[in-house]
């Protein structure tokens, strides 16, 4: 295997290599990608730090990923062992060879491998804008290997679902009960994964069907029902191709394969690339640093999880913001040191005047406070826009549709309306980004939209006036409670801010006091030494004067 590289520039800087030596090209308009394989992670069944069954990340691969500044699209190719998934991962790079293939009984890929460097791809978005992204293709160890730890197989499948923006599931020949179970897991992801409140968990699900047949009519019905949620590509494999497909695909040429099969593979690859979603952190695109941090946190949670059927995804916002904030603090400290050293060097050397350094520190503090206030305003505005959009969509979905639709779908009575309002609130609480801005929006809905909905139902005669009045009174009371809670939360945040500022102020006062005391002691010491020196000079001078006078007054000797 080609050596792993330490950075993107290591590979992007190499010269093109002759294709006969470098790889078996697929062609058909799918760009040939140069590079090398590197293991992203592995699984250890042996004891690691006293624990068994640990997922181990490869630091070299993480270093490569951290250097990526473009938005990331992550494709995971998953399937049963010895069923051709690695070959499809190769074709995503425009080649028949690359990811490990071989004719042995055991699966070749162990852990998860990635192609380095992740390649660039440009797509036109729905708004007409073209965006360039980095595509990471992951080839995972085959699932359902008889020699595989069942706990690892489950974690591997779910890990690939969690970290991907496109999930490709390869099924070969027979769709059985195991595949049905995996497909159900993919369509009912929320039952197995606890999503963070502050992020969307959206990925594109792709199924590759290789010459499939069904074990029973029930299986066929289940596949037909489940496939409505997937992008499905059927890759027809003729019997004469079967042995070559499974054992020597890295060596074949396109003209040795069935034309229909090659055409379908080409269509599947191009379709996947044309609709390739980006991995997001809430409403922000994920890049190298944020993906690495998210991957590290996810693996950490999986390693500590005792129940493999329910795994918790770390909050992308929480982990990434904390990490980026720490990096920003480190960078700020370095900049401060750099500027202070420059200030010192301007004077040649220490000491420098306290007033000069204090002015710089004071100016820095003012600029930081100003930026913090501006950031708070911007963040509040974005939180308001985000939560307003969520509320608007949910209101239309759960309430407006029952208020203004035809008689078959409209609310018949107060119970229908109350049920819809509960659904609206419940889904809003799950989807919104928790903040005072979110509380203000739900309070506004209870003040305006709730009242308007109740009045509208009353005018239609679906709610009597007394009941409408009772509902309105209850909603007003609930709204006031929310307003009080929002004020309390805002006050708590303000008090915490004041408390931190006071602590910082007291800390600065203490530092300045210690500096002043040290300066006073230094001045006293200098004064004492100067006074001592002055007295010594006076004493010596007086001795000299007395000796001189004595010489003048003494009689001359002849």
TrEMBL record:
Transmembrane segments: none annotated. The keyword Transit peptide does not apply. Keywords: Coiled coil. InterPro entries: Guanylate-bd_N, P-loop_NTPase. Pfam families: GBP. Residues 488-515 form a coiled coil. One of its GO terms (molecular function) is GTP binding. Residues 54-195 form the Guanylate-binding protein N-terminal domain. The keyword Lipid biosynthesis does not apply. It comes from the Eukaryota. This is Guanylate-binding protein N-terminal domain-containing protein. It comes from Rhizophagus irregularis (strain DAOM 181602 / DAOM 197198 / MUCL 43194) (Arbuscular mycorrhizal fungus). The lineage of its organism: Eukaryota, Fungi, Fungi incertae sedis, Mucoromycota, Glomeromycotina.
């Amino acid at each position: 295997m080609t050596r792993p590289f330490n950075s993107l520039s290591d590979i992007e800087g190499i010269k093109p290599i002759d294709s006969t030596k470098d790889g078996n090209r697929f062609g058909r308009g799918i760009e040939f990608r140069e590079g090398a394989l590197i293991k992203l992670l592995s699984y250890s069944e042996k004891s690691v730090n006293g624990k068994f069954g640990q997922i181990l990340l490869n630091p070299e691969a993480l270093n490569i990923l951290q250097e990526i500044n473009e938005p990331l699209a992550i494709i995971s190719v998953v399937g049963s062992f010895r069923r051709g998934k690695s070959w499809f991962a190769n074709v995503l790079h425009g080649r028949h060879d690359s990811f490990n293939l071989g004719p042995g009984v055991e699966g070749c890929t162990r852990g998860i491998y990635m192609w380095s460097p992740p390649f660039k791809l440009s797509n036109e978005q729905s708004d007409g804008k073209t965006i360039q992204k980095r595509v990471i293709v992951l080839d995972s160890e085959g699932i359902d290997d008889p020699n595989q730890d069942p706990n690892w197989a489950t974690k591997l499948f779910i890990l690939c679902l969690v970290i991907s923006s496109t999930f490709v599931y390869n099924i070969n020949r027979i769709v059985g009960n195991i595949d049905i179970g995996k497909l159900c897991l993919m369509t009912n992801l929320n039952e197995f994964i606890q999503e963070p409140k502050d992020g969307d968990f959206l990925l594109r699900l792709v199924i590759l069907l290789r010459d499939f047949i069904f074990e029973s009519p029930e299986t066929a019905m289940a596949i037909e029902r489940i496939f409505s949620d997937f992008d499905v590509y059927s890759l027809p494999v003729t019997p004469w191709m079967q042995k070559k497909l499974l054992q020597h695909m890295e060596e074949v040429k396109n003209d040795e394969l069935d034309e229909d099969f090659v055409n379908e593979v080409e269509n599947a690859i191009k379709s996947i690339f044309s609709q390739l979603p980006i991995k997001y952190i809430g409403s922000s695109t994920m890049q190298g640093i944020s993906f690495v941090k998210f991957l590290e946190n996810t693996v950490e949670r999986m390693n500590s999880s005792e129940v493999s059927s329910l795994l918790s995804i770390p909050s992308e916002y929480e982990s990434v913001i904390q990490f980026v904030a720490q990096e920003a603090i480190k960078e700020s400290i370095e900049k401060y040191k750099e500027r202070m050293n420059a200030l010192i060097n301007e004077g040649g050397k220490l000491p420098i005047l306290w007033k000069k350094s204090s002015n710089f520190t004071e100016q820095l503090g003012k600029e930081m406070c100003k930026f913090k206030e501006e950031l708070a305003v911007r963040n509040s505005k974005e939180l308001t826009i985000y939560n307003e959009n969520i509320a608007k969509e949910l209101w239309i979905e759960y309430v407006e549709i029952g208020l203004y639709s035809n008689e078959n779908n409209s609310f018949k009575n107060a119970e229908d309306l109350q049920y819809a309002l509960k659904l609206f609130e419940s889904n809003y609480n799950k989807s919104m980004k928790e903040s005072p801005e979110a509380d203000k929006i739900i309070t506004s809905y209870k003040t305006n939209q709730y009242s308007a909905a109740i009045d509208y139902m009353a005018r239609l005669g679906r709610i009597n006036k007394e009941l409408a009045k009772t509902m309105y009174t209850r909603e007003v009371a609930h709204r006031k409670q929310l307003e009080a809670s929002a004020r309390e939360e805002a006050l708590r945040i303000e008090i915490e801010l004041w408390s931190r500022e006071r602590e910082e102020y007291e800390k600065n006062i203490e530092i300045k006091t210690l500096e002043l005391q040290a300066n006073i002691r230094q001045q006293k010491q200098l004064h004492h030494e100067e006074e001592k020196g002055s007295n010594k000079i006076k004493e010596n001078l007086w001795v000299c004067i007395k000796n001189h006078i004595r010489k003048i007054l003494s009689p001359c000797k002849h």
